[in-house]
Structures are given as C-alpha cells and as structure tokens.
Amino acid sequence: GQQVMQIPQYQHVQEGEDFTTYCNSSTTLSNIQWYKQRPGGHPVFLIQLVKSGEVKKQKRLTFQFGEAKKNSSLHITATQTTDVGTYFCAGNAGGTSYGKLTFGQGTILTVHP
Amino acid sequence: NAGVTQTPKFQVLKTGQSMTLQCAQDMNHEYMSWYRQDPGMGLRLIHYSVGAGITDQGEVPNGYNVSRSTTEDFPLRLLSAAPSQTSVYFCASRSTGMGYTFGSGTRLTVV
Question: What is the distance between the terminal CA atoms of chain B, rounded to a whole angstrom?
C-alpha cells in the first residue's frame, strides 16, 4: 500500500534558525497536505499542494511539491517559539482512493529561545 | 458551527470490553476518517468514508468497525478491546479540495 515517509523525526533549533522537513511517497500523489499539531492538541490543516512543482508561501512557511509529485517539503524561515509542534505531511493518491489520506510519521520541532 | 465533535474525551476500558467512540460534524462534509495516534508512528488511518452509506478500510482496521448512516455521524466501534488499542483516536472530516478538520481526540486506555 501507499507509504509516506517523513524526515527528520526530530529537529531542535535555536530561535531564528531555519527548519526544513521532507516528505517522500512510495507512489505518485494526486495532492499533498501539511498539518501542524501543537503539544497536547489536534492536527490543524496548513495547506494543500496539487500541481507538479508547485510552491506556496504562508508568511515564513514555504511549501514545495516535487516535479514527480512524489515528494514535498516544508521550510520555515527564522523559527519562533510559536512554531513548536509536530509537522505532518499527508498524501492522497487520488482516483478510487481519493477519500484515503495517508500521513507521514511527522517531524517534532522544538525551538530554543 | 461546532466543527467535529468527539465523545468521550477520555475512556478507560478493561480488556475484552466493547465501546463506541462517537464523532459528529455539522459542516456537511462528505469525507470522514478515523485515525489513531501512537508515539513515533504518526497518524494511522483506521477506516474512512466518502459519503453516507460508504465506508472502507484504512491501514489498521482490525478490531474496529464503522458505519455511516448519515452525513453527520461516523461512530467507531471497538469490538473487544485489547491493550494494543490504547491510543489517542482522532476523527476528521473534509469536503472535496479541502484539508481535514480534526476533532479534539479521545484518549483511550485499555487495561
């Protein structure tokens, strides 16, 4: 079945440093979504990427979808303590599996002030 | 709008007991899913539904049943609880082209 791998599992940064998490799928995706989960909370949707090579920005966050639609990345510029949490990617294969969203294991980000 | 409502928030079961985790959404979303979250394993899909009357299995369906008799409700049934089912369970819903809205979760302990 479809697998979505995410690295690194943990990332510790000093406030102001940049952060990147990478996501790779075993199959070509129809779209990929990114979520953030604060400690003790539930996942919150950040963004969806659909097109090959797509790049989207949300303030200090930059999201990319690979040309082959099998990988993606999330880059945070100049981290802040409010960025702490777990970042998940989630892939959808589309077609008859459109309702099925497979999550990566997540990257836990800690930011030291 | 209440969004996605999960009940109960906490539950302790004895091995072998059965129970139903409730999930309701008021956003008229067609897609609903149940995930379990365990440390280091991310969110694993248990069952999902693409509309009323239609359900399908996810990655880890064994030991769980679902039904979707209405658009709003998507209950998850544990048939005979086992310690391996100790986890945090999240219900989520979405419409086409949207991201999932998650409920606040149910923390289940099976002893």
Answer: 36
| A25 at B interface, C-beta within 8 A | no
CA B33 to chain centre: 6
Contact (Cβ atoms closer than 8 angstroms) between residue B81 and residue B19: yes
A10 vs B: CB within 8 A: no
Q: Phi and psi (nearest 5°) for A61?
A: -100, 130
Centre a 10 Å sphere on the Cβ of residue A51 and count the other Cβ atoms it contains.
10
Task: Find out whether the peptide bond into A113 is cis, omega within 30 degrees of 0.
Answer: no
| pLDDT digits 0-9 by tens, A37-72 | 999 999 999 999 999 999 999 999 999 999 999 999
C-alpha span between B53 and B97 (Å, rounded):
21
Q: Cα separation of A110 and B70, whole Å?
A: 41
What is the DSSP-derived secondary structure letter of residue A81?
G
State how far the Cα of B109 lies from the Cα of B11, in Å rounded to an integer: 6
Verify whether the Cβ–Cβ distance A105 to B35 is below 8 Å: no
Instruction: Please state the φ and ψ torsions of residue B84, each to the nearest 5 degrees.
Output: -65, -15
Distance in angstroms (rounded) separating the CA atoms of residues B5 and B81: 22
Tens-place pLDDT, residues A77-89: 999 999 999 999 9
